[in-house]
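RECORD TYPE: inverse folding
INPUT: structure tokens
STRUCTURE:
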């Protein structure tokens, strides 16, 4: 982790490595792209802030207007964003009964915090907690649209039973689904099919509840691939995505974005060479990049990340192919010549999974590639991450 004070760092050549970098120019471009798409589709965009976990990044999402609706993945995130003025929050991980007191504390602060569940047992716990607190506790029923993780299938018999338990307690808000398998949809056609299936699953579940006389206010869908592929969201009220703010090599490998859209990178320093193995060693291992190898399932495996120079220009054929805790190993592939990189050379590594890499760092040194850059881009700001990681 960088130990150089953000206030004294002037360019990417200054902080101690490894450290995370966010390109605000690319971030704003990524944000605008999905915001415009949500507007065209006629749905509310509810960004997932688990990727950046930063109030400074989140502020870019709503351009200085009152805070937008957000999605979180931990209650610590919910509390931190509530402290930052966000009052419309969805906690999109299945609720455990022991966490309900913290949920109720946020509700009493005036935060509309929705919880997620997929069982009668959870619904009963939510209903009992709401009764004991004397206030409704908004809950969404998780729908499984592709077998990726938790949730009920749209035709599950328990769906209406869960809905009725919540409704009788004044807690039923709607349904939510996440097309997690879209991260393995390698073509535009496959991503479009995933988006349609995601929509259809959520809308079908909502209609089943309505047919049973149960109100459904929210029909929530979203993943970064499907959010960018969807053409028709009829019946859906809101769209969720988070990775799109930074993007990463997995998304580039799926064709959802290009390499020039990746807004997050990690600066590392060359600390040694093993010419007999064709290795360049850096001080950025999996503690800097994470262990995520998401591109290994794609046609082009990018190892632990692609390598650029400090200005962000790709070094041809250079890949981070191995990592231990604090060491990264760079090698050349596809017949490329291993470049001459003396000890002390600084490089940037583009991550496989932005969410996982961001989680390894306390904050981001911010650059702006929209401005004239030199060999070591100027640092514009330092954005700390919130708690909850």
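DESIGNED SEQUENCE:
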């Amino acid at each position: 982790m960088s130990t150089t004070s953000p206030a004294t760092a002037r360019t990417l050549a200054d902080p101690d490595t490894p450290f995370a970098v966010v390109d605000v120019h690319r971030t704003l471009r990524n944000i605008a792209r999905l915001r415009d798409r949500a507007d065209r589709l006629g749905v509310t965009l509810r960004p997932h802030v688990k990727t950046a976990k930063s109030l400074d990044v989140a502020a870019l999402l709503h351009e200085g207007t009152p805070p937008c609706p957000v999605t979180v993945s931990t209650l610590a995130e919910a509390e931190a964003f509530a402290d930052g003025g966000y009052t419309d929050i969805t906690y999109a991980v299945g609720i455990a009964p022991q966490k309900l007191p913290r949920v109720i504390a946020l509700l009493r602060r005036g935060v509309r915090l929705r919880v997620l569940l997929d069982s009668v047992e959870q619904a009963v716990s939510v209903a009992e907690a709401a009764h004991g607190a004397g206030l409704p506790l908004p809950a969404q029923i998780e729908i499984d649209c592709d077998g990726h993780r938790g949730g009920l299938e749209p035709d599950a018999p328990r769906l209406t039973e869960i809905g009725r338990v919540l409704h009788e307690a004044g807690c039923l808000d709607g349904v939510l689904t996440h097309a997690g398998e879209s991260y393995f949809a390698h073509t535009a056609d496959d991503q479009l099919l995933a988006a349609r299936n995601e929509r259809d699953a959520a809308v079908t579940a909502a209609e089943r509840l309505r047919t049973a006389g149960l109100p459904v206010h929210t029909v929530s869908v979203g993943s970064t691939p499907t959010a960018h592929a969807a053409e028709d969201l009829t019946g859906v009220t809101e769209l969720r995505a988070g990775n799109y703010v930074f993007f990463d090599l997995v998304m580039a490998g799926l064709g959802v974005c290009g390499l020039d859209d990746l807004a997050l990178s990690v600066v590392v320093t060359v600390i040694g060479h093993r010419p007999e193995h064709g290795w360049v060693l850096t001080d950025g291992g999996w503690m800097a990049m994470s262990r995520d190898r998401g591109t290994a399932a794609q046609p082009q495996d990018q190892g632990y990340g692609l390598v650029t120079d400090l200005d962000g220009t790709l070094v041809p054929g250079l890949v981070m192919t191995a990592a231990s805790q604090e060491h990264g190993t760079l090698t050349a592939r596809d017949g490329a010549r291993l470049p001459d990189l003396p000890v002390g050379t600084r490089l940037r590594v583009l991550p496989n999974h932005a969410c996982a890499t961001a989680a390894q760092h306390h904050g981001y040194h911010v650059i702006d590639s929209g401005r004239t850059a030199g060999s070591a881009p100027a640092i514009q700001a330092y954005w700390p991450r919130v708690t909850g990681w």
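NOTES: The radius of gyration is 22 Å.
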